[in-house]
Design brief:
Number of helices: 12
Order of helices and strands: HHHHHHHHHHHH
Oligomer: single chain
Shape: flat
Helix content: over 70%
Strand content: under 5%
Radius of gyration: 25 Å
Largest sheet: none
Number of strands: 0
Amino acid sequence: MANKKEDLSILRYCANTLDPHIDDLKKAAKNILKRNDIEDVHDLRVASRRIRSTLNAFADHLPKKQLNSWMKDTRAITKAYGKVRDLDVQLDLINRLYSETQDSKLRTGLRRIQLRLEQKRKSLQEKTAQSTQSLLESTAIDDLSNWVSQMMENSVDEEFYSPALYQLGYKQIQNRLDEFLFYEVFIFDIQRVEELHSMRISAKKLRYSLEIFADLYRNETDFAQKITRQAQDFLGEIHDCDVWIDFLPLFMQKEYERIKSFYGYTRPYRRIRPGIEYLIANRKQEREKLYQTFLKDWKDWKLKETWLNLRKVIFLTSLEIQSQSIPPETTQENSDNLIENSQDATGDVPPLE
């Protein structure tokens, strides 16, 4: 069981991690109200996810009643801006393709998609403004900010990372890495849409865990954080293509029905169909290219033993800290036992228990 000093070490580390993310959250919210920049919505959602990831990582050490309130509000923030962000990403792509395409037969269909997305985005604008104002007035976010400030004010002059904090970081990263690698078996089948999407989410959680505990491991896990981010980006772009590929056939059907209902005949549909079919083909081609590049990079990461090296870094650091916290006469014996049992048949390092 962690003593009072170890508990303080954990809580201080948690507060120091949360502090810049809370600032980023409030800054992005204010920017959303002042201007129309899609990156502000992205920054706000990233900040909210980082806050949630940190709260999840330290959940066992935080006040339960307050934790539930903090989690509820930050989860609501992430969810409230999800549709807006998705539309912004889609509009960004369609605007780029429209400007790059000179064929008038294709531009007509692309323009129709652009128009419908703009209509959806506009319909969400008022709700977005309301959500942003509610965020800035959130008592839960203010309470979290006050708790963080209090913990940072109570910090001691000397930096202290307790063995309990290292054990927490070790378990968090190990668990997230295990969840991420669970999906490795599915990546060699290009049709595994749901599994690749789930792997993207796991990659995001692993990356956030690596970010949270980067200082604890003296940035020696940065190599894995960088590669995890690359994997997440690949899987995210593949998922974006999958969303388009699912959406566009339904969009075509809806436009066909609208035209038929409005005109009484379907001839005008012929003008927009080539552009929509072009975008479907474009997204399928892009998905194939992304998938093949991801597969190639994944094999390179495996050859370099990226994930095993990550396990070694956090294991050896935890081993070093544990050795420093036990009596000298038992250090060598315990260390030898831990090293002897540190790798299973696959070469992975099991948790320190």
